[in-house]
Batch of 4 targets.
Target 1
Amino acid sequence: MREHFDEQLAGIKGDLVELCALTEVAIERATRAVLDTDLTAADRAAEVNTDIDTRGRELDYRALTLIARQQPVAQDLRALISGMHNIADLRRMGSLAAHIAEVARLHYPEPVVPHELRAVIADMGVAATAQAAAAQEVLRFRDQVAALELIWADERTDALLRRLFAATKGDDWLYGAASAVNITLLGRFYERFCDHAVEISRRVIFVITGELPLPDE
């Protein structure tokens, strides 16, 4: 009985890592769509989001069923409950990537990002992709040090977001209110994507230690 439970638990963990890998693909394609006005990349981001949502629902059901049938305790229960919350975060990450891609689609064939801010958006895309990749490793190995490093790395995205806000609110902004709104939305989408990766890391620490780090730790 225990061996079968361990196999199911390992299967859920492995599928959670795969789901996280899909968010990395989604955010990379979304960033390409925005920076290159690439509709193929936008379509791919939307497709991956649909896949994340479908697989996330199935994985959530498996975790809930395992809890109901096996009544796990201690770390196993923390892993399953945290995993279900992580699934919700990963589904949201997929949706945020799709939102970014949709901004590019809505303004096609015109570019969304002014030339002066392309480097900042590119850096946000790199940061978000790196956070998704790091979250995979945190989920795979349950490494507390790596989880803490991911949490601390979130400041990079926050700093980039502040740069975007400063640019759109400056007196020398030349692109109008609609463009400022688009840039603000893109920044917020990237920020929230990374915030969800941080939440995943916080829960992995909870699985390991039984204590949930505060958001500002």
Target 2
Amino acid sequence: MPRLSAGERREQLAEAAIRVMIRDGVAETTTRAVVTEAGVPLGAFHYCFRSKEELFQTVIERIMERNLPPAGPAHPEGATPHEKVRALLRSYWDQVRARPAEHLVTYEVTQYALRRPGLADLARRQYRHYQDVYRAHLESMAGAAGLVWTVDLAVLARYGLGVLDGLTLTWLIDRDDVRALAALDEYARYLASVAAPADRVADRPAG
């Protein structure tokens, strides 16, 4: 068996933890269950992670990273801001529909952490991370679509996270694709209303 680096071993354990969480639930995801799933000795866990909390944080980040697709799919020439933003949001939604079990795990981690004294900070870090990632994704989205946002980006990121978080959870409950996409398109219309073409802003006279 090839010797893995610490980074590769962390990746292996994080992926094993995701599989255990999907199969058995977050509350049953013990360090022993994770190393058994990964096929490694218990000592490998303590070599890679200081605590189960750190593992959970890594799991959250890993799921978030792969469920935010690149922010630059091709757009038809002459597409409106709404059409550009709509295409980008639908690209995100494709990831939600492709990995529903992983998204369900993230909500379960949040509830698990909030109900346990000493773990509440994990949930706070989880949502701070979400806001940071979504803010960066909004910046990438604007760049890919040739737009600039006309409202404060931090506020827009928090608002958008609330919208997407709620839409995702609702869809996980009812699996109503038609209404989910209709709501997503409505959010795209809102984003288009607070965006302006970057070239027009750049050409605007100073002062």
Target 3
Amino acid sequence: MGQPESRENRQPERPELPPGQRLQRGWPVTHYGPVPKFRPERWEFRVFGATADGDKHRWNHEEFSALPFSTVVADLHCVTKYSMVGAEWGGVPARTVAELAPPAPEATHVMVWAEYGFSSNLRMSDFLSARTIFATHKDGEPLTAEHGFPLRLVVPALYAWKGPKWVRGVEYMTADRRGFWEERGYHNIGDPWAEQRYTYQERPGDGPEL
């Protein structure tokens, strides 16, 4: 998808790892369920929910591939305790999507939807970070199917489960709602530097009531 137009956000990563993490050489394959089959003629990316204009926004695969391409160098911290450092992620910044399909002023969170109904909730501030990107490439190469081709979300500030593979759309929300793993015992926010791994670690205000 696309060719690089900018190489933004290349500030050095922190030299240390978040608490409880170990350095990983290579990139393990971790996901729940089977790898979906990509059918470009059926693929569609949607933005819906609390949009500024009240409409749904859609891009087919060709249209999404033509959106401005950028890169972010960022670590990936998995809740299973491995960290992959210094990867270059290429794709479409989340901010670009939000500029093309703006959220309503009252929107506070997003739900990122992926294949098989998988979902992950994010605070709007994390979604709109300059380093959050809908990745199509890693280190200059297209993602493989096992790692999320044709599209995965990368949210460097949070644990990797907050960035689903095989993304198909974004729902703007005016109130928080737990996603797939958050409903199954994972922390609602997922900050690796605060080691927010599990629901029992949540403090008042970290998420909606169970």
Target 4
Amino acid sequence: MERMSDQPARWTRATVHPDMWADPDTDPRNSEGTAPDGELATLRDYLTNYRLTLRMKCEGLDAEQLARRSVPPSTMSLLGLIRHLAEVERDWRNWISDGDPLPKLYGARDADFDGAVAEQALVDAAYADLTREQAATDAALAAHPDLGERLGEDRIAVRELLVHRIEEYARHCGHADLLRECVDGRVGQ
């Protein structure tokens, strides 16, 4: 006898490998040609792919689905992750700046998650914020191609900041895997 559940059935769009998010031939993270050459190019490539993975985990969902919380008492949602990473990108620029810190995008601590509500205008703004903040952080770091250069008041090495950014996105892509599966059952790498 089959049991009824309010949990969505697991599924994937991949047809070649059912444990993957997308088929390798159509996965936008798969690049043609050789792997990046050098440490800086490799770090940037990993960051780019994790950023793309986060967006892929959110694609095709409406505002309600993006704002849906995982399990109480957590306030985590896919929309909250988008807002959080926009906030974090801004904060990373504060780490490398010698000037006054940029203000928080969403206000007090955890407002990035707490304010993630199911409104399309808020979703659009969150994506715009993320895109803008990623570009601004990338531009700030592009002026410092020496991975050993130390920046900001805390003298953080460019390499350390890039690795930390990769780690942050990778960790939250793991959260996004579980959140997406809770929303509509879609699974994959």
